[in-house]
Design brief:
The chain has helices at about 10-20, 30-40, 45-50, 55-70, 75-80, 105-120, 135-150, 160-175, 215-220, 235-240, 260-270; strands spanning about 5-10, 55, 80-85, 90, 125-130, 150-160, 180-185, 195-200, 245-255, 275-280, 285-295. The chain is α/β, with parallel strands linked by helices. It folds into two domains: about 5-70, Helicase, Ruva Protein, domain 3 (Orthogonal Bundle), CATH 1.10.8; about 85-295, Vaccinia Virus protein VP39 (Rossmann fold). α8 (about 160-175) links the parallel β6 and β7 (about 180-185). The radius of gyration is 21 Å and the shape is elongated. The relative contact order is 0.11. The mean pLDDT is about 95.
Length: about 300
């Protein structure tokens, strides 16, 4: 594709779709339309209504650069620089794992447990989201609780300095009236605070499986956000072993699990005297979210 010749919206979609098809993408026309929307902000309706509209030279240059990136399998979220999660618009980057739609099940369940605790305790809820990444889980939960009028204190923690900064930006944009503590930490803050709700979506891909993932993940997502050790369960072992002292009596740990991992994760926690309360399946039927209570809870 050359950027020196005039090109209207339909012609760009046609040319980009042919290039996606030649590169082996499954849905080349959808890819072309999504790319156009990512760069210009024009949604499907406007693309159809303005199909004959000529694209400006600057727009064509940006589209050409974005097209070449996508042909190399750079994720569309990274090209866009943003993604939608739980109805909110989050900034993303190539240094931090982008949130996935199935993780919204974790937010929904964490909200249920938080409302349950708020009704029984009548106190400000203390919430910790470890492996926070973009901050999507903790911020989305905070947004829901703020809407429900539930007082809470939110802490977001991640070992990655890039994740900490990105979570800070997202918290300022999406929870501007709520003080949020954002820490660079290896799962746990240095303080010995206890929390009523702990959420976590740790790295859970077995190390030897990472190279076999689609290139959008294996090549362009940060390895430290994927690598769960030899069997993918390293961080669950730490959560099970160390998390009991961080959870308040009656509190809940709400976890995301990789496909096919739930039974092994539950076994790890039961060995450390935790109690498994609930498993939630995602849209594909995978056991995706686990709810646990700490060793001190009967």
């Amino acid at each position: 594709m050359t950027t020196g010749s005039p090109l209207n919206i339909l012609a760009f979609i046609d040319q980009a779709a042919r290039m996606f098809s030649a590169a082996g993408f499954d849905e080349p026309r959808r890819e072309a339309r999504e790319l156009l929307e990512a760069v210009t902000g024009m949604g499907p309706v406007r693309q159809l209504a303005d199909a004959d509209r000529l694209l400006g030279e600057e727009a064509l240059q940006e589209l050409e650069e974005a097209l070449q990136r996508r042909l190399r399998h750079v994720p569309m979220d990274q090209i866009r620089g943003r993604t939608s999660f739980d109805g909110l618009d989050f900034q993303v980057s190539d240094k931090v794992l982008s949130p996935r739609p199935e993780t919204e099940f974790l937010v929904e369940e964490a909200e249920r447990r938080a409302l349950e605790l708020a009704a029984s305790k009548g106190e400000t809820l203390r919430i910790l989201d470890s492996f926070t990444g973009t901050g999507a889980i903790g911020i989305s939960l905070g947004k829901r609780l703020a809407k429900a009028g539930i007082p809470f204190e939110l802490t977001l923690a991640d070992l990655s300095p890039w994740a900490v900064e990105l979570a800070r930006q997202n918290a300022l944009a999406l929870l501007p009236l709520t003080p949020v503590r954002i820490l660079e930490a290896d799962i746990w803050p240095d303080s010995h605070d206890v929390y009523d709700i702990m959420t976590s979506n740790p790295p859970y891909i077995a190390r030897h499986e990472i190279t076999g993932l689609m290139p959008e993940v294996a090549v362009y997502e940060p390895g430290m956000a994927l690598d769960g050790g030899k069997d993918g369960l390293d961080f669950y072992r730490r959560l099970a072993r160390e998390g009991g002292s961080r959870l308040s009596p009656g509190g809940f740990l709400v976890l995301e699990a990789g496909a096919g991992q739930a039974a092994d994760i539950i076994e790890l926690f039961i060995k450390e005297a935790w109690s498994h309360k609930k498993t939630i399946r995602d849209f594909a039927g995978h056991e995706r979210v686990l709810v646990l209570t700490g060793p001190a809870v009967e």
